[in-house]
Amino acid sequence: MCSSDLLPGVELRLADDGELLCRGPIVMRGYRGQPEKTAETLRGGWLYTGDIDTVDPDGYIRIKDRKKDVIITAGGKNITPSEIENELKFSPFISDAVVVGDARPYLTCLVMIDHENVTKFAQDRQVPFTNYASLCHAQEVVDLIGEIVESVNARFARVETVKKFRLIDQLLDPEDDELTPTMKLKRKVVNEKYKDLIEEMY
């Protein structure tokens, strides 16, 4: 358990599964007219934040992922996908990624390429393509993303490595259901809409 220097009277602690709990005068009394949701979120005086966190020796909290997004593999390993996804997105050729693997034997990933940078990559190497879909299917582009995936895999434990990936070959915009207004992929929608593409990887 730790207290917050910035918020006097506020206590923080991690549950056994790593979820950040908080209690103190800043915590709400509950959801108006939603007793079930209140009972789910407020237990024993603690607010269950839904964030999976770590606390370093100096008391600094680091948010790893949302609890609802944590992947539990078929082998029972807990994986925080955002860590892997964020490493992939450091590449200028990847605009977003969604790691998949809940109740599965290994991790896979759906990748949205950065249109501008990958187009330039293809043009510089005289890779033929006619539209966004054909760009995504060009072997040179698939190999490029494969190299990035392998490079990222080297930074993680074996159970956290992405074994297969697929490129989303539709050029998306904020009007599409898959994207937030800030052009981020919606995990739940992507998992449902591209379930056949995901199944191909298993």
Structure description:
- It is built from 7 helices and 11 strands.
- The chain has helices at residues 35-41, 81-89, 115-124, 132-137, 139-153, 187-193, 195-200; strands at 2-3, 11-14, 19-23, 42-43, 46-55, 61-66, 71-72, 78-79, 94-100, 107-113, 162-167.
- By secondary structure, the protein is of the alpha+beta class.
- Strand 2 and strand 3 (19-23) form a beta hairpin.
- Strands 1, 2, 3, 4, 5 and 6 form a 6-stranded antiparallel beta sheet that branches. Strands 9-10-11 form a 3-stranded mixed beta sheet, sandwiched between helices.
- The model has no long low-confidence stretch (mean pLDDT 87).
- It is elongated, with a radius of gyration of 20 Å.
Number of helices: 7
Largest sheet: 6 strands, antiparallel
Low-confidence region ranges: none
**What is the helix content?**
25-40%
State the end-to-end CA separation: 42 Å
Total number of strands: 11
Element-by-element helix/strand order: EEEHEEEEEHEEHHHEHH
Beta-strand portion reads: 25-35%
Average pLDDT rating: 87
Please tell me what the overall shape is: elongated
Q: Report the C-alpha radius of gyration, rounded.
A: 20 Å
Structural class: alpha+beta
Task: Describe the structure concisely.
Helix content is 30%, strand content 26%.
List strands and helices in order, with pairings.
Blueprint: E1 2-3, E2 11-14, E3 19-23, H1 35-41, E4 42-43, E5 46-55, E6 61-66, E7 71-72, E8 78-79, H2 81-89, E9 94-100, E10 107-113, H3 115-124, H4 132-137, H5 139-153, E11 162-167, H6 187-193, H7 195-200
Parallel strand pairs: 10-11
Antiparallel strand pairs: 1-2, 2-3, 3-5, 4-5, 5-6, 7-8, 9-10
